[in-house]
């Protein structure tokens, strides 16, 4: 709950939480539980409008910028 609240106020949490990675935009970094549709798994960022498959977004968010998904 602490991590969720700090994220809400824009404070970066150092360790990467896989649960949050699925809710975090891999394009702009916006994190919200409402970014991802829990029924379809589809990810749509509330901040920048970026959309993609939720699982792919989570993987992309965990990889360093510029690296390619094999
Ligand atoms: Zn975004």
Describe the structure.
The chain is of the alpha+beta class and 70 residues long. It has one domain (2-62). The protein has helices spanning 2-8, 18-21, 54-62, and strands at 42-44, 51-53. The protein has a two-stranded antiparallel ribbon. The longest helix is centred in the last third of the chain and has 9 residues, at 54-62. It is globular. The mean pLDDT is 77. Zinc ion binds at residues 25, 27-28, 30, 45, 47-48, 50.
Give a summary of the structure in a few sentences.
The protein has helices spanning 2-8, 18-21, 54-62, and strands at 42-44, 51-53.
Helix-strand sequence: HHEEH
- Largest sheet entry: 2 strands, antiparallel
Give the ligands present.
zinc ion
Count of discrete alpha- or pi-helical segments spanning 4 or more residues: 3
Low-pLDDT runs: none
Kindly report how far apart the N and C termini lie.
34 Å
Work out the strand percent: 5-15%
Number of strands: 2
Rg for CA atoms: 12 Å
Give the spatial strand order of the biggest sheet: 1-2
Class based on secondary structure composition and strand pairing: alpha+beta
Question: What would the principal axes of the Cα set say about the shape?
Answer: globular
Helicity, in percent? 25-40%
| Tally of individual domains | 1
Integer average pLDDT? 77
